[in-house]
């Protein structure tokens, strides 16, 4: 399909939600630029992998540069990379702070700048952030100020960018998950974690990929924070 085949960039793409997003976009016949610290080369000629720490601006620059060199364009960016550190506020360390801001905030900032610059050239594009519903429903059982500080910032930036680029053909949205069954949650924790949602169970990785693909196809939706959280943000 040559230069007209769409291209998605996905961060945090080596496992869990990120790896599922790579498969989901390939299922939509997108070419994919996948990045993560330890990502391995792909056997699929339409998947370019770029290993690196997204907190390092050089990684972001390399991802976009190599993606454009290989595929000729950038149509979608999914800012999926992130870390979650749950601690009482006074126990956070300087290392915790730097890690959260580096990956969750700086990791979003530079690659989004570069991707939008490419999208402007063609007058179309879509950026999606993966945030967290804890931004909207603080929980004393899960003290997580660094997640609220960084991911909450992404929610605000999503709306700001959506308005800034609304007339330039570029949409910006976010998916705000509850607790999702990923390798970071051992099976023995699932019952307790599931009980934290009004629906009584955790979400599946497919719930997040389905939400991202919905936003991808929803041309009249921009500036949306789509909660996929089993009712958490609605109340308790």
TrEMBL record:
<dbReference type="InterPro" id="IPR002347">
    <property type="entry name" value="SDR_fam"/>
</dbReference>
<keyword id="KW-0560">Oxidoreductase</keyword>
<comment type="similarity">
    <text>Belongs to the short-chain dehydrogenases/reductases (SDR) family.</text>
</comment>
<dbReference type="GO" id="GO:0016491">
    <property type="term" value="F:oxidoreductase activity"/>
</dbReference>
<protein>
    <submittedName>
        <fullName>NAD(P)-dependent dehydrogenase, short-chain alcohol dehydrogenase family</fullName>
    </submittedName>
</protein>
<dbReference type="Pfam" id="PF13561">
    <property type="entry name" value="adh_short_C2"/>
</dbReference>
<dbReference type="InterPro" id="IPR036291">
    <property type="entry name" value="NAD(P)-bd_dom_sf"/>
</dbReference>
